[in-house]
Specification:
It is globular, with a radius of gyration of 20 Å. With about 350 residues, the protein is an alpha/beta fold. Helix 1 packs across helix 8 and helix 7 packs parallel to helix 9. Strands 3-2-1-4-5-6-10 form a seven-stranded parallel beta sheet, sandwiched between helices. It has a three-stranded mixed beta sheet with strand order 7-9-11. It has a two-stranded parallel sheet with strand order 8-12. Helices cover about 45% and strands about 15% of the residues. The chain has a domain of about 240 residues: Rossmann fold, CATH 3.40.50.720.
Length: about 350
């Protein structure tokens, strides 16, 4: 038995691969293009482990995917691979269209051909699990109820629009062709191996470097925060017992404004890595111009996955964020290696 993971060198994908192999011996075939956010250092602990087979390649390369499916005969495909940063999608949307929409289409077609030819028992047991985002639902006002799985899609950025399109493709391949699919829509993840363009790792890295901590607008944009290892456990549970064709929202029940997140990170750094002069990292906070079309609030209603599958997060935000800050403090080499010249250029372009 084998599972195929796309994007398994990225933030969520690599955490999933590490967690999967820590809990079972079923091999993982890991397909990742290794774009800027894909990092084999995330998987360094698996070097020499026969259970982990890494292939650098594009999920849109039909010949490659066909060959991998034929050779390894996975019982499931877990599709993490995506361009995922809203800011980058605003500056250059085409990569998001190609990877998230065209790439997902080509993967679905390869998987459909493979699945259709399986013996009946293997065909019945096969699963395609598509990992998506709460951003497909659009934005919420202060008093709106959280996103339920039945919420209409109203994406507001090129990124969320491309993910919404991929969700629709997955749904259509189930209803039209019978492909046994499952979809998860998660809230903002945080934790180890998070590329430092996203809010929490950016704040940690900039704070330690003595740089400004850029906060968009008034900083009152609200997000639901999910510790990445909790997300991994939810995906395992959906793969194991989710109902075919269903969507499961995965959230942390942690709605917090961005500025509170930044203050929490600063307070933890004040405690764990205090400055020599005794001042607080909060002094480095700088408010910058808000990004175009910035959604005001996301919130996940995660009652369905708890009711049907018995899943709920193990971490509170307080325990998860402490573990996250401690991880970054303990892994300065990882941070240094991912901060390439192209990364520095991007931060300068975005936050100026």
């Amino acid at each position: 038995m084998t599972i195929l993971v796309t994007g398994g060198a990225g933030f969520i994908g690599s955490n999933f691969v590490l967690d999967w192999l820590a809990q079972c011996d079923e091999p993982v075939l890991n397909l990742d293009k290794l774009t800027y956010a894909g990092n084999l250092e995330n998987l360094a602990s698996l070097q020499g482990d026969a259970r982990h087979v890494f292939v650098q390649g594009d999920l849109g390369d039909r010949a490659l995917v066909d060959a991998l499916l034929a050779q390894h005969r996975p019982r499931a495909v877990l599709h993490f691979a995506a361009e995922s940063h809203v800011d980058r999608s605003i500056h250059g949307p085409e990569d998001f269209i190609q990877t998230n929409i065209v790439g997902t289409f080509r993967l679905l077609e390869a998987v459909r051909a493979y699945w259709s030819a399986l013996p009946e028992a293997e065909k019945t047991a096969f699963r395609f699990l598509h990992v998506s985002t709460d951003e497909v639902y659009g934005t919420l006002s202060k008093d709106d109820p959280p996103f339920a799985e039945t919420k209409a899609y109203e994406p507001n950025s090129p990124y969320s629009a491309s993910k919404a399109a991929s969700d629709h493709l997955v749904r259509a391949w189930h209803h039209t062709y019978g492909l046994p699919v499952l979809t998860t829509n998660c809230s903002n993840n945080y934790g180890p191996y998070h590329f430092p363009e996203k809010l929490i790792p950016l704040m940690i890295v900039n704070a330690l470097a003595g740089k400004s901590l850029p906060v968009y607008g008034d900083g009152l944009q609200v997000r639901d925060w999910l510790y990445v290892k909790d997300h991994c456990s939810a995906i395992r549970r959906v793969l194991e017992a989710g109902r075919l064709g269903e969507t499961y929202n995965v959230g942390g029940w942690n709605e917090k404004p961005n500025i509170e997140i930044v203050h929490t990170v600063c307070a933890l750094l004040d405690e764990l890595r205090p400055k020599a002069d005794g001042s607080s990292y909060k002094a480095q906070i700088t408010h910058v111009q808000d990004r175009p079309g910035h959604d005001r609030r996301y919130a996940i209603d995660a009652r369905k996955i708890q009711r049907e599958l018995g899943w709920k997060p193990a971490e509170t935000f307080e325990t998860g964020i402490r573990k996250t800050v401690q991880w970054y403090l303990a892994h300065p080499e990882w941070v240094q290696h991912v901060q390439s010249g192209s990364y520095r250029d991007w931060v300068q372009k975005q936050y100026g």
